[in-house]
Specification:
Chains A, B: InterPro entries: Homeodomain-like_sf, HTH-type_TetR-like_transc_reg, HTH_TetR, Tet_transcr_reg_TetR-rel_C_sf. The structure is a homodimer. By secondary structure, chain A is an all-alpha fold. Chain A contains eleven helices and no strands. In chain A, helix 2 packs across helix 7. The structure holds a DNA duplex.
DNA sequence: CAGTCATATGACTGGGGAGTCATAGGAGTC
DNA sequence: GACTCCTATGACTCCCCAGTCATATGACTG
């Protein structure tokens, strides 16, 4: 956690620092990111930086946590009675929305899942679970009602969905030739019909990937059940 | 490309160096990998290293290229008449096989797709292209025969599949806690039933994602319909 | 004014790491 | 033995980086 000093800072200065953090961690890997560059960009001395944050990791964690909760707030929590397709649609739209509003923040979150990044969300954090567990929960629920096939592991399914969704912005940008910095300014890119079509196709495929076959509870529910992310072995 | 000196080396020494490269790049990110450690492990002076390779990237590229072609050779090219499911299965099983034979090499390739790694295969190189080629071909063929749905864009579908398949190694490592260095010693990790289950689940889901619904050529076929995503985007 | 507390600062330290270079074998050739 | 390639070597240079510290500013207190 950042030191109290950081939170006592005048709003303007604090957000300048947060912007600098976002810039740096959006543009570079955690390892490659440099505190010197951050402080230079923020117009703050290095000594100050270490009066705000315990260390580089602390600053990074603060940034990522903020972005993750922003991301989650944006999406909102789907009502429990929502169908899987609705949940998925909400996630896709939320992802697009978030990317549109805060491309750099989005890049930071995307990077935060890479090998190089410290595991902020992997184990110790509650936020970790949030996004993935969200999907996992929705899938498990769908399996229970028979809406979704129950012959696949919810964790694996959740991973697959997350994996696809996280790649979408990059794919869209590459395919439709949208420059990264351009994306930052023009918020409207994702409103183009071709791009909406991509989103539609993806949701359609993901839904089909998990659709139940009309006979709830068929097949052996044993293997897949009760095996959320962490729990392995003893099959 | 490595200098000729490298290829003139006695077999034993050259492979010692290659092993050291593999060790280092399997255990660490490209940025984190250190030439000093590599030379120390290989029992070679740093000066020699730079007589073999232009620079760190050159050595890395040499390693990854070798591994990629080994990987591709192992998989072979699927026959054109293979079904989509067969192609997918072959790809996934190929990954299995490769891991069993060369866990460290497998880890290097898995890492080579991360943010941090220089883009050796992003555009000009084989592995990514290879998989996309297979999938695109298989999808086009499948859509033609009615095996696969044709209401989604083939390019988008191919991208999605590629995206999922390329992420599998990382996911498996993360989920089952296979450290790259640990993977080096326990060659049997991939034989665990849970991992086989992941592979099975993914293939099943991807096949389902693209399956035709018995009425080839129909648009608007079933599961995913009713909520065109793009339409909602009109905020 | 004197004192105290929170905040700012940037030179500095210690630790790597990539890439270089002067020097030293060693193996053939005449 | 002398000359020439090719190969080895590790100390060395330059650069960057995370984190520290002695020092300074300034506001508020009495």
């Amino acid at each position: 956690m950042p030191h109290p000093t950081f939170f006592n800072l005048p709003e303007e200065k604090r957000s300048r620092i947060e912007e600098a953090l976002k810039d740096e961690f959006a543009a570079r890997t955690y390892t490659q990111a440099s505190v010197d560059r951050i402080t230079a960009a923020a117009g703050v001395s290095k000594g100050s930086f270490y009066q705000y944050f315990v260390d580089k990791l602390d600053a990074y964690t603060h940034l990522v946590r903020g972005l993750m909760s922003a991301r989650i707030d944006l999406a909102g929590t789907p009502p429990p009675e929502a169908t899987f397709e609705e949940v998925l649609t909400a996630i896709v739209l939320g992802s697009h929305d978030f990317h549109r509003r805060d491309p750099r923040g989005w890049a930071v979150l995307a990077r935060s899942l890479s090998d190089d990044a410290p595991a902020i969300l992997d184990s110790d954090e509650a936020l970790s679970e949030d996004i993935r567990q969200w999907t996992t929960t929705a899938i498990a629920a769908g399996q229970a009602t028979g809406e979704l096939r129950d012959d696949v592991d919810p964790g694996t399914a959740a991973w697959m969905i997350e994996r696809v969704l996280l790649g979408v912005p990059h794919y869209v940008m590459a395919r439709f030739g949208i420059a990264p910095d351009h994306a930052a300014t023009t918020g409207s890119a994702f409103d183009q019909p071709e791009i909406a079509a991509v989103a539609r196709d993806l949701v359609a495929m993901l839904v089909a990937a998990l659709a139940g076959n009309g006979t709830p509870g068929r097949r052996d529910a044993g293997t897949a059940q009760g095996t959320p992310l962490g729990a392995q072995n003893s099959d």
